[in-house]
Amino acid sequence: DGLTVAFPGTNNVACWLADLDVALTTVRGMGRVHAGFWGAYASIEGPLMDQSPEVTCGHSEGAALALLYGGALCLAGKPPKAVYAFEPPRVSIDGVLAKLFQRCGVQLLLTQNGEDVVPQIPRLLHTWQHPGELTRIGKAYEPFPNVEDHLIEHVIEALSG
Question: How many CB atoms lie within 10 A of CB 159?
Answer without folding.
Answer: 12
